[in-house]
Amino acid sequence: MSLQRFLAEGRLRRQKTGRLEIRRLLQVTARDLSDSCVEGLSADRRFATAYNAALQLATVVLRAEGYRTAGVGHHATVIACLRLIIGP
């Protein structure tokens, strides 16, 4: 799969970003990483929060390249595009 194919399938679209959007995504990431360490939370909730932090970081990479997900399966699209953008 390539970024061009994701675009052709409507799973990605081009969209510029700015520093503010990236900063906000990184703030969500930091918050979620911190929250994922709260011992009073269930293991399932900590995992879900850590997963969201990872997803936000992958989204930062995608947005910095000028793409945004579209359509269904956006989590899978973000993760698949991460390797295409930064390599293995």
Q: How do the strands and helices of this protein lay out in sequence?
A:
Layout: H1 3-8, E1 12-14, H2 19-35, H3 43-64, E2 67-69, H4 74-86
Antiparallel strand pairs: 1-2
Helix pairs in contact: 2-3, 3-4
Describe, in plain words, how this protein is organized in 3D.
The chain has four helices and two strands, in the order H-E-H-H-E-H. The protein is globular and about 45 Å long. The protein has one domain (3-86). Helix content is 66%, strand content 7%. It is mainly alpha-helical and 88 residues long. The longest helix is centred in the middle third of the chain and has 22 residues, at 43-64.
In short:
This protein has helices at about 5-10, 20-35, 45-65, 75-85, and strands at about 10-15, 65-70. The protein is mainly alpha-helical and about 90 residues long.
Order of helical and strand elements: HEHHEH
- Overall outline: globular
The percent range for helix content is 55-70%
How many structural units, i.e. domains? 1
Give the DSSP E fraction (strand runs of 2 or more residues). Answer: 5-15%
Given as residue ranges, the uncertain stretches (5+ residues, pLDDT < 50) are none
Main sheet? 2 strands, antiparallel
Number of helices: 4
Strand tally = 2
Question: Within the largest sheet, what's the order of strands?
Answer: 1-2
**By helix and strand content, what is the structural category?**
mainly alpha
